Amino acid sequence: MSITLDFDAKQLDNKRPLQLHCLPAKIDGNGECGNVDKFFNNYTRESSEYGSGILTNSLRGYPLLGKREPVPKGFKGVVVQETDPHQEQRQLRLTGTFEDFTYWNYDKVPSKGDAYQQALIMLDVADALATPVSEEQLEEELKRYQQAKKENA
Amino acid sequence: MVKSATRSAKPKVDPDAAPQQQKVCSIKKVFYISEKLLNIEGDQRMCLERFYHPGKGQPALFITQDREVMEVLEYAEPRRSWLLNNEVCSNGRTYMTTPIDPTFLALYHLRKHCTQRAMSLDSISVDEANGSTNRLLTKFINAESLKCVADVKTSGELIFYKYNKDRTLAWLALKTRQVVSVLKAKQVHCGLGAKSQNYVRSEKIVDENDVKETDYMRMACDYVGRYLDAGLHDELTRYLEIPSEIQALVEESATAKKRKSQQGQATANSKKIKLANGEDVGTQLRNSSLLDSDDNKESITSPPITPAPLKERSLTAKEKSLAKGAKGSKSIASFFKVK
Amino acid sequence: MFEARLGQATTLKKILDAIKDLLNEGTFDCSDSGIQLQAMDNSHVSLVSLTLRSDGFDKFRCDRNLSMGMNLGSMAKILKCANNEDNVTMKAQDNADTVTIMFESANQEKVSDYEMKLMNLDQEHLGIPETEYSCVVRMPAIEFARICRDLAQFSESVVICCTKEGVKFSASGDVGTANIKLAQTGSVDKEEEAVIIDMQEPVTLTFACRYLNAFTKATPLSTQVQLSMCADVPLVVEYAIKDLGHIRYYLAPKIEDNET
Description:
The complex is a heterotrimer.
Chain A: E1 2-5, H1 9-14, E2 20-23, E3 31-32, H2 36-39, E4 45-46, E5 54-59, E6 62-70, E7 75-82, E8 90-98, E9 100-106, H3 115-130, H4 135-152
Parallel strand pairs in A: 1-8, 2-9
Antiparallel strand pairs in A: 4-5, 5-6, 6-9, 7-8
Chain B: H1 2-9, E1 29-34, H2 35-38, E2 47-53, E3 58-65, E4 68-75, E5 81-84, E6 87-89, E7 94-99, H3 102-113, H4 121-127, H5 131-140, E8 150-155, E9 158-163, H6 165-185, H7 213-225, H8 230-239, H9 245-276, H10 281-301, H11 307-312, H12 317-326, E10 337-338
Parallel strand pairs in B: 1-7
Antiparallel strand pairs in B: 2-3, 3-4, 4-7, 5-6, 8-9
Helix pairs in contact in B: 4-5, 6-7, 7-8
Chain C: E1 2-6, H1 9-19, E2 25-31, E3 34-40, E4 46-53, E5 59-62, E6 66-71, H2 72-80, E7 87-92, E8 98-104, E9 111-117, E10 126-127, E11 135-140, H3 141-152, E12 157-162, E13 167-172, E14 177-182, E15 196-199, E16 203-208, H4 209-215, E17 224-229, E18 235-241, E19 245-251
Antiparallel strand pairs in C: 1-5, 1-7, 2-3, 2-6, 3-4, 4-19, 7-8, 8-9, 11-15, 11-17, 12-13, 12-16, 13-14, 17-18, 18-19
């Protein structure tokens, strides 16, 4: 069982970038939600008092602190949507791409401690884990271990 | 049938997954797709598929393109949603495609089938009823890289593998060290202990002394362990000689105690100096504990104290001496007006 | 909801040490710009004014202005329970009658919280007029503490005389007289060791020595102290708290005929 991503690299370049906000709230709903520019983006302010690049806004009266986050290097940000889940051949269709987004926190200046930043560490860890180990390195490690074992014995 | 597969594909997906049937369009998803996948030449499209994930003990999502396989990591927080242009998206997750050494995925099957005898990948696939394992082993596994974890014998066209524990552990140890160097480079905090929720890791103070080699090793080993079955993870921990966290905690508190006793000595000394400084012991006593505890009681047991009884309270020696010193000075209130 | 976190408990300890000898209780007025405390000592001779700016805290949140009356002796006791490197967080709900003080050890192994009852203090706020001071002296805080301590042995009163030659502290009593003169530092190599005198008009004022000594409890907070003087106006002794704010002590001068 597999799902095909129904687009290629060329298509990505032709799309107009989407504007994304990662909100610290659970919203039980999907779809159009009126004028985001007028009711939300309009109120985004840069607040240097919290640090450089920190933005403020509010969602239903709750203060938000945000920061522009670029898509990590080496990645392309895309939004996809499944066309028809009942088809035999499941497909994800490209909705749009993005270069960066705004990460919002409720009542907390975005920092290294955020779960999102922690998740980004995983990207580097995964890279390190996937880096192949050479035959020489492996032989060396085997020798080192045998040596250590002998010394302990 | 297709539908049920969707649900199992995304465990604990939002409640909106249920009424999907009525809606034409399903929930949008935000992906970070590695440029490495996008740059692969060829007519084939990227594909999401499930392979058995040894760390999770169940099938997990991977993304494939031609002969390349990557893991799909989910970043999810309990209360997150996306705003995409003028649209709300209740699925606040971000799916990130991260590289994975498929050897990790093959390792599980080697340990399962090839500890006693050498087998070819084909015959392992036959034993596994699951079709995805067959696809994984035959399409994405690089026979060359399996040398790191197995003894390889070639007989004509066929290649046989036998799990080699020593080589595997050495290989995993090297992987762990690669992770350690990344963690160090990124200055990831990995000390012991739980953090209070509103504690924000300080970005300025990363105390070099605080972050110990074993802490890094333990964390890296835990990362590697995410791709191993529990048994192999334990073997690796022993191989790397990483003490358990409880052991480390005991050691930590022992050193802390040492520090404390030294501190105790220091304060005892400073007390002596104070006494020798000429103040008579009686005042010292009254100052330090007895009267102090009196006014303490007042404040803690009777909440909103009216100012009146406070004034009647007998004054401490310090206050008396200050009051004496105040004689002859004008009142400060005569200079500053009440607002 | 009010919440303020400082990276190091030692700063708050030092602040409490600097005010608890003069004041038994005080009201911490919290607003989104920070924390302020203003109070007179029991004898109404001196005034303590503490200002901690919100941006000096690691985290600061104050949804509604809040006044928290506290017994400073109790507060100091709670702070004694903190290690110097601990993180300290003060928390209070709007309209709460308690404040929570939480300490987190540097390695986050230990989290302790203390709840303290708040008091309803009927304190008036005094308006302090903007004053052009005739003399402003900046000097090492340790030097000032030393002078006050030394002169206290001779008299209850200290005369501070500021002229263009320098600043002179003197005291006379039964034992004899003491004079300490400080001249402006010639070359300013180290800012924290400099004596800088900014004089418009010479001033001579008399102050209660015990009070000056009480002010010097703030010495650990700052390397330098600033004395601002003007005839017939209270002396201002100011200690800056690095990156956080300042503490100012106002002391009414002694009435002249007492001195002769």
